[in-house]
Amino acid sequence: MIWTVVIACLALAVFVYMRAQRRAQSQSPTSDTGLAIVEFGRAYPSEAIREVISTADGNNVFLRLHDGKVGCMRAQRQHYASHLIEPGSVTVHNSPTGKGLLIDFQDRSEDSVSFEFRSSVEAAEVSLWLLGSLLPVAGIDESPRAIQGDG
Question: Which superkingdom does the taxonomy of this entry point to (predicted)?
């Protein structure tokens, strides 16, 4: 009778331990976009974040910044490694799946990898950021009168 109780207690302990491990993995820093924003703010306090898109696995976060630059954060165990990407400093290729990008960082060749996003729309948005197409072009008058014509 005592062995039955001991075995039942051990089975319950294993069940509780496995459930706690699953819960800890789902709440890990790699899946927390808020933590990525805080960590990026610590690394680059003078940069204002406009938009955030994370990869499908949550291990990488791309941040669109106010001045046309892009921030990239890569999860490394319990923290993020972050760096700024200047417009024109990367080469971007579409992945065969359509929901990913193959990004070649010219200044950091060790980070040149494929990133898979949740949708092709997110992948396209990040590619626009990286290609620098969101930078304002100097010398273009964007007033409503200039766009509609003078007449």
Answer: Bacteria
